[in-house]
Amino acid sequence: MGDGTTVELDVEVAVVGAGLAGLAAATVAARAGASVVVYDVRCAGGRARSDERDGFIFNQGPHALYRAGAGVGVLDRLGVRFEGSLPHPVAAGYREATGELGVLPSSPASLLRSPLVGIGDKVRLGRLLGRLPKLEAAPLARLSAAEWIETLGLTSNGAAVLSALTRVATYTSDLRFVSADAAVGQLQLAIEGNVLYLDGGWQTLVDGLVAAASAAGVRLFEGERVTAVQAGKQGTWDVSTPTVTVRAGSVVIAAGGPAAARAMLSGAPDWGLGAAATATCLDLGLSSLPATRVAYGLDEPLYFSTHSPNARLAHSGGAVVHVMRYGARTSEEDRAELWTLARRCGVGDDEVVTERFLHQMTVCHALPRPGAGLAGRPATDATGSFGVFLAGDWVGPVGLLADGALASGEAAGRAAAKRAMSVRAPIGAMVER
Ligand SMILES: Cc1cc2nc3c(=O)[nH]c(=O)nc-3n(C[C@H](O)[C@H](O)[C@H](O)COP(=O)(O)OP(=O)(O)OC[C@H]3O[C@@H](n4cnc5c(N)ncnc54)[C@H](O)[C@@H]3O)c2cc1C
User: Fold this and answer.
1) Mutate to test the pocket of ligand 1, among 42, 58, 63, 326 (most ligand atoms within 8 A of CB)
2) Is the pLDDT reported for residue 34 higher than 80?
3) Dihedral, CA atoms, 73, 74, 78, 82, nearest 10 degrees?
4) Which residue, of 15, 57, 218, 425, has the fewest CB within 10 Å?
5) Quick one: 153 exposed, middle or buried, by C-beta within 10 A (0-12, 13-18, 19+)?
6) Atom number of ligand 1 nearest to Cα 227
7) In angstroms, what is the span from residue 409 Cα to ligand 1's centroid?
8) Assigned domain for 374 exists
9) Are 81 and 55 in contact (CB under 8 A)?
10) Neighbours of 105 (CB within 10 A)
11) Nearest-CA residue for atom 49 of ligand 1
């Protein structure tokens, strides 16, 4: 405060976290006319960062962008450009118990050819594929994805196939813990537009978002941990790092998950959150393509997919393969299981140029809960603190994973800018009187 009658803001909007959500929020707020700072304890990008190893580009585990998802719309509005390719069209179904790999029915053509399901399931799955695009997802929020699959009258084989596809679409190891509206919404996105593996990895999105933020005038501070967000004078917020405290008109907390948000904010309400989705990943850079390009586990929550050369992530002739278990267990168990799957799909030890093992990654901090659904996730303003907003893959009624992070980031950035302007205006008017 200067003379006691006017609020001197250091900045209009302070954003905590420079992942997809924070960068989107910051850019939207700055474009709305606010002065904006972003702090990240590490560097920009969060879980969307990619790393280069021996000429191979690794995302942090398999990352695929839904072409018809909300995130693409946000990226487009922010002017972030990217290119990529569809996954290999034929996927195998993998039974860990027997080591068997068979064509997985994921399209009308592969449904007919698949040896994994009998004629009755082919008919039922075929009908479902036909009616899924028009199915109204929201009323299914009361059910879990597992309960919804039970209502479809499939045999155990048919249910295993649909569960495998639903796991891939939702990143959920146990379908009892994700609401059916979210699962159906993801399957609809997969049918409508499939996904893209991105050339250059998801770092392309991070770099594009950082460039958009910078062009809008956002100031980004990396290596700065925000330790507290506390109420300041006259409706302002003091945002503290170990080295500085800035006074902001409003704040967006986009620090990854709810625990990080709660740690820096006192008096946050009970958000009634769903379970987190975790995964263990084995990222492989290979000198040649594996015999099986894509495989999804039928009896275990497993994933194997060749992301490059579909996307440009490796030198010519090389391949980037991501192997993953949805729902992490012990590091030893997961590592052994992922290598077994890789070898089963034709990865030979001699072909491995580089590898990275990532145990227990948090893919999504809180899945939409059965009974509450997407609409039951915390709103961007559900902080109990007027002028402080949330963004991330556990926030807001729109989209899972990156789609949720970008959509809530956009909404929070817009709301934060509006609120910050309103803090200034009445105080300015008061001074004039
Ligand atoms: C293995 C894996 C696979 C995935 N696959 C997909 C996929 O295929 N499709 C998809 O859409 N999504 C996928 N995701 C999810 C996607 O990566 C995330 O939803 C998205 O990146 C989350 O962005 P965010 O900004 O909300 O959070 P984060 O990326 O976690 O960013 C939070 C940022 O806040 C910073 N931070 C934390 N605390 C503080 C603090 N106190 N002060 C300052 N900064 C702080 C962190 O350093 C971080 O940079 C996957 C995730 C994983 C882990």
Assistant:
1) 63
2) yes
3) -60
4) 425
5) exposed
6) 41
7) 12
8) no
9) no
10) 26
11) 46
Task: Based on the fold, state whether residues 300 and 343 are members of the same structural domain.
Answer: yes
Distance CA 1, CA 190 (A): 53
Distance in Å, CA 6 to ligand 1 centroid: 38
What is the tally of structural domains in the chain?
2
| 261 vs 133: CA distance, rounded Å | 36
Average pLDDT for 325-346: 97
Residues 101 and 169 occupy one common structural domain = yes
With a 6 Å cutoff on the Cβ, whether 17 touches ligand 1 is yes
Instruction: For residue 113, name the pLDDT band (cuts at 50, 70, 90).
Output: confident
| Res. 162: pLDDT tops 70 | yes
Probe residue for ligand 1, chosen from 307, 357, 360, 401 as the CB with the greatest number of ligand atoms within 8 Å: 401
At 2, is the pLDDT very low, low, confident or very high (cuts 50, 70, 90)?
very low
CB 306: neighbour CB atoms within 10 A?
24
In this structure, are 75 and 128 located in the same domain?
A: yes
Q: Say how far apart CA 183 and CA 373 lie, in whole Å.
A: 10
Q: Is the CB of 277 under 6 A from ligand 1?
A: no
pLDDT in tens, 226-243: 999 999 988 999 999 999
Cα(431)–Cα(351) distance, integer angstroms: 71
Task: Kindly provide the b/e burial profile for residues 209-247, where b requires at least 16 CB atoms within 10 angstroms of the residue's own CB.
Answer: bbbbbeebebebeeebebeebeebeebbbbbbbeeeebb
pTM of the complete model? 0.96
Judgement on whether residues 148 and 264 belong to the same structural domain of the protein? no
CATH number, domain containing residue 299 = 3.90.660.50
Cβ neighbours of residue 72 under 8 Å, at least 6 residues apart? 65, 66
pLDDT for the residue numbered 312: 97
Q: How far is the CA of 405 from the centre of ligand 1 (A)?
A: 8
Which structural domain range is residue 230 located in? 11-48+202-270+382-432
393 lines ligand 1 (CB under 6 A): yes
Residue 229 · residue 264 · CB < 8 Å: yes
